[in-house]
Amino acid sequence: MLKKFMGGGNKKPSKSDSADAIAGTGNNVVVNHASRGALPAPAPNSAGIPSAPPPPSGVMEVLPAFRDVPVGERQNLFLRKLQVCCFVLNFSDTLKNVREKEIKRQTLMELVEFIQSGCGKLSEHCQEEMIRMISVNIFRCLPPASYENTGQEATDPEEEEPSMDPAWPHLQLVYELLLRYVVSSDTDTKVAKRYIDHSFVLKLLDLFDTEDPREREYLKTILHRIYGKFMVHRPFIRKAINNIFYRFIYETERHSGIGELLEILGSIINGFALPMKEEHKLFLVRALLPLHKPKSLAMYQQQLSYCITQFVEKDFKLADTVIRGLLKYWPVTNCQKEVLFLGELEEVLEATQPAEFQRCMVPLFRQISRCLNSSHFQVAERALFLWNNEHIVSLIAQNRAVILPILFHALEKNISSHWNQAVHGLTMNVRKMFLEMDAELFEQCQRQHAEKEANAKDVEEQRELNWKRIADAAAQNGVDDMVTD
User: Fold this and answer.
1) What's the pLDDT at 58?
2) How far apart are CA 153 and CA 158, in angstroms?
3) What is the rounded CA–CA span in Å between residue 298 and residue 276?
4) Is 455 helix (H, G, I), strand (E, B) or coil?
5) CB-based contact 160:92 (threshold 8 Å)
6) pLDDT of residue 18
7) Bridge partners (DSSP) listed for residue 23
8) pLDDT truncated to tens, each residue of the chain (485 aa)?
9) Which end of the chain is less crowded, N or C, counting CB atoms within 10 A of the terminal residue's CB?
10) Burial of residue 226, with CB atoms counted within 10 A of its CB: 0-12 exposed, 13-18 middle, 19 or more buried
């Protein structure tokens, strides 16, 4: 990782103005954005340490390398280098502060290398100052999201260029330093938790709303490592992520980091012990399943589907809850979302046991029947692809006496009138499968369907006859009125 950083640092520093263009940062270092909701001003953490140091003053100095000073002096040099990195530079103009930017970049690289090399265990004071420096650099106001500038709906990030933070050359090194500190075997969690406390974790979570995918990737890795190393923070992290989901689902429907948070949760869910706690089941019902509701589902559906499937694989009894949850939030007018739902449904059914399948098969196949007759060919086609899955076909075959009568009309309707030839061909294949499963049941359903069609035809003829009588009576009354006049 460090070699990657070394590549861009050979530019000769220029003699530009120093202190007047260096942007200092005050004590109240918070991630605060109008659309994301403001955080309260940071309070001292459990050790009484404010979240950020006062801004450095004066000219940024070039310090010697760690290898050029005696071992006993390296921690003092570490502290001085941290102070240099507390200068927050303005990256909006690439031509300004070139010298200071290069000095800070080289200093950050040296700090990362020092932590990574394991040259010695850091003192508590060094750890405290390092977290302060990290806070100064990463806890900042996020730039406005693209939809806030244009007023447009949030779109799929794959369809547009992501917003890149110009300060990333420095931010990346700061995040790398934090990551190395968290994963280091020399880091004592009993000491580190004084500085990486609940306030620090909340601010990290708030940064997930950044539009820069590179920053979200680092945040995801770091938060996951914190969750793994700091057991005391685990319930708090789960609850905080839960609250982000609630606000996204029921208030804003806009957040850039839902996918990354779900990736973290996917790993967490995979490690849940059995029997599963009631707290985790409530999280599934109250937070994960409602995440199918927002319009922007496509941006994080793959990660959400993985989390949902993990629950079912962990506890097969949850299959009924999950399938009924999907049916509850099934889209009515959004065909692209409907295709995503069908894909996720297949993954859930793949992990579903026969007993759980029987509990929800009637409402499930009523919905699938509607999908089969969708005029949007991708929806109908995706629904018919369910019969390509051997496990699902096995579940259907075991319960064909209930399922075929529900689907038979939809299958016959597709064969007689669906406009898409691919859908027509797939329907013929499914119809043939049912015939081979149970010819007697198939013929029975065919007779019932023919009777229903005949009855429907009689009803329609009677309806037309009634309307004709009404029209004739109206016309006769009109003639009688003219004669009377």
Assistant:
1) 59
2) 15
3) 29
4) helix
5) no
6) 39
7) 88
8) 444 444 444 444 443 443 333 344 333 333 434 334 433 333 444 333 333 344 455 577 889 999 899 988 999 999 999 999 999 888 888 888 899 999 999 999 999 999 988 766 889 999 999 999 999 999 998 877 766 655 555 555 555 677 888 899 999 999 999 999 999 998 999 999 999 999 999 999 999 999 999 999 999 999 999 999 999 999 999 999 999 999 999 999 999 999 999 999 999 999 999 999 999 999 999 999 999 999 999 999 999 999 999 999 999 999 999 999 999 999 999 999 999 999 999 999 999 999 999 999 999 999 999 999 999 999 999 999 999 999 999 999 999 999 999 999 999 999 999 999 999 999 999 999 999 999 999 999 999 999 988 888 889 889 999 999 999 898 888 766 655 66
9) C
10) buried
* Amino acid identity, position 142: L
CA-based nearest residue to 82, from 9, 173, 20, 169: 173
CA distance 28 to 12: 35
For the chain, the straight-line distance linking the first and the last C-alpha, in angstroms and rounded, comes to: 99
- b/e 7-38 (16+ beta carbons within 10 angstroms → b): eeeeeeeeeeebeeebeebeeebbbbbeebee
Q: Which residue has the tokens 């009855």?
A: 455
Close Cβ partners of 267 (under 8 Å, ≥ 6 residues apart): 224
* C-alpha dihedral sign at 359, 365, 370, 371: positive
Q: Three-class SS of residue 32?
A: coil
Torsion 156-93-1-201 (CA) sign: negative
Q: How many CB atoms lie within 10 A of CB 112?
A: 23
Question: Using CA atoms, how far apart are residues 389 and 15, in angstroms rounded to an integer?
Answer: 68
- Whether residue 351 contacts residue 313, with contact meaning beta carbons closer than 8 Å, is answered with yes
Q: From residue 319, how far is each of 257, 337, 444 by CA, in Å?
A: 27, 21, 31
H/E element, 22: strand 22-23
